[in-house]
Write a structure and sequence with these properties.
Blueprint lengths: L14 H21 L6 H17 L5 H33 L16 H22 L3
Helix pairs in contact: 1-2, 1-3, 2-3, 3-4
Length: about 140
């Protein structure tokens, strides 16, 4: 497992899963350090994330309404995983930086510009994926 910060490791198969797992583990560890416990069910979010990625890889050739249903299932699983991770990260952030305030008025309740851009790009890509399922050429 790579220990350096060299970003080229993501070019190797499955290294992106290692980096995402490390991020999940880091959020859990930070929350435990600040609050004494973590609300992040690490095995559940890891299994959900990896399961969605594997399902997506195994069903790349499936199109039409079946492909749409599979893609919707993947989207809902990933949305659930990311919701759990974001809630845990917000708890950590609120504990580490109480001066920012709690949701909905503090930083924990507002989106950053990076999150807004990622949401827009992710939404456009998801709509493109659904269109490709319904209208394969």
């Amino acid at each position: 497992m790579p220990r350096s910060a060299w970003s080229g490791w993501v070019l190797f198969p499955f290294m992106n899963l290692v980096y995402v797992w490390r991020a999940f583990r880091g959020i859990e560890a930070g929350e435990k350090a600040r609050l004494g416990e973590s609300s992040l069910p690490l095995p559940l979010v890891s299994a959900g994330y990896i399961g969605a990625i594997v399902l997506g890889r195994l069903t790349t050739k499936v199109t039409g309404s079946t492909g749409l249903l599979i893609d919707l299932a993947i989207v809902f699983v990933l949305a659930g995983v990311l919701t759990l991770v974001q809630q845990s990260a917000n708890r950590y952030q609120a504990a580490a930086h109480p001066e920012l305030g709690l949701a909905p008025t503090g930083m924990a309740g507002r989106y950053t510009w990076g999150e807004i851009v990622a949401l827009i790009i992710g939404g456009v890509l998801t709509l493109g994926l659904f269109a490709a399922d319904l209208f394969p050429s």
